[in-house]
Amino acid sequence: MNQSSLPSPSTRGPADHDIRDQIVAAANEHFSQYGYGKTTVSDLAKAIGFSKAYIYKFFDSKQAIGEAICTRCLAEIVAAVEQAINEEGLSSTERFRRLVKTLVTTGVNLFFNDRKLYDIAAFSASEHWPSSRGYDARIKGFVLQVVREGRELGEFERKTPLDETVDAIHLALRPFVNPLLLQYSLDVIEEAPTLTANLILRSLMP
Amino acid sequence: MNQSSLPSPSTRGPADHDIRDQIVAAANEHFSQYGYGKTTVSDLAKAIGFSKAYIYKFFDSKQAIGEAICTRCLAEIVAAVEQAINEEGLSSTERFRRLVKTLVTTGVNLFFNDRKLYDIAAFSASEHWPSSRGYDARIKGFVLQVVREGRELGEFERKTPLDETVDAIHLALRPFVNPLLLQYSLDVIEEAPTLTANLILRSLMP
After folding, report:
1. Which residues carry the record's DNA-binding region feature (chains A, B) (predicted)?
2. Could you read off the pLDDT of B185-203 as tens digits, one per residue?
């Protein structure tokens, strides 16, 4: 999984990845049960059996822990999309369809099969955390990659400025990318991604 | 203003429009100040100086009053869009641009310049009130009208089944039509409508 261009959560103290991971895993578990919004670092420390001071050696705030959870979760979507669109021998049209489909299925699974990940992702999106902005930038990067390749192959039109096309597609995908909008797209989630992908692909026709 | 295809709020009792309008206006005022969610019909009755029983002569529940307010508010958007797209001598492309622009500017003004109308509209949308479903259907009807006309004039492509095109456009406009999504579109409201309209218009090219 390539997370290199997702910003890392704000951390400090010993670079002991095992303990940091242990805290993130325990926090994830705890937030899943009690919610992210209502839990304080003291609650969390008590629940996972570390002192508050010890947790603060690794994370400088509750948000930093939330960020770490969110970064992991969003990186899973990014990795799934990356894998889906980079398979060899696909047309750009097919890559674009896979981008939309993978984005939606992975996002719905991660945010809504475990509702509390939705809570954290929603916090992240509504407060413009780096994890959320990084995620958004990665998705936009995938759109750019697929559109640019499709243009080079003569599969997509080239008259519209590339950045306008990419911005517009990125906006059209917002209801499936941004968890705050995705929550209200669940009742159209069966048909909406395909209809939207088809509309966008028609707009890309040379 | 043609409201004939918007469902009327559930009302009963004397068909005295003046008094009904008076209640709706007073309720609108009261909800604007105290919020829709938290106010009971008793609170409302006290505040506007009618007995609860008298209010129940005209409306069978608080929701029916909320519906009446919502129907009015959404009918304003419908009327504005209708007027904007039916001006004579416009191309279908121009009609479509006006549809999107009027929808967004009227919606943003009505829902967010008076935040409490947003509250009621959000209730209506999340609980699929008839006012909200009727509004959605009217907007879809406008999309159908413009697309069909554009096809007849040879301005838009005709290969895609008409209902698929209309469904997809209606979905693409959801972030500006549905107040629940619109609240999260406010930070992109300057550029998003034009970018989206342009993308949709490219998808309609013959």
Report:
1. 40-59
2. 888 999 999 999 999 999 9
Burial per residue of B50-85, b for 16 or more beta-carbon CB atoms within 10 angstroms, e otherwise:
beeeebbbbbeebbbbbbbbbbbbbbbbbbbbbebb
Residues of A in contact with B202 (CB under 8 A): 157, 160, 202-204
Domain tally, chain A: 2
- Beta-carbon separation of B202 and A171 below 8 A: no
B46 and B145 assigned to the same domain: no
Supply the CATH number for residue B36's domain. 1.10.10.60
| CATH number of the CATH domain containing A139 | 1.10.357.10
**A12 in a domain, yes or no?**
no
Chains A & B: contacts with CB separation below 8 Å = 70
Same domain for A68 and A21: no
Each residue's pLDDT tens digit, A58-117: 999 988 998 998 888 899 999 999 999 999 999 999 999 999 999 999 998 888 876 667
Q: Nearest-CA residue of chain B relative to A182?
A: B181
Structural domain of B92: 70-203
Same-domain pairing of B36 and B74: no
Q: Are residues B31 and B111 in the same domain?
A: no
Assembly ipTM: 0.86
pLDDT attached to residue A12? 53
pLDDT at residue number A10: 53
Query: Does the pLDDT at position B9 exceed 70?
Result: no
Query: Which positions ≥6 away from A201 have C-beta within 8 Å?
Result: A93, A96, A97
Residues 130-169 of A with CB under 8 A from B: 157, 160, 164-165, 167-169
Mean pLDDT of A1-19: 54
For A184, the closest of B180, B196, B204 (CB atoms) is: B180
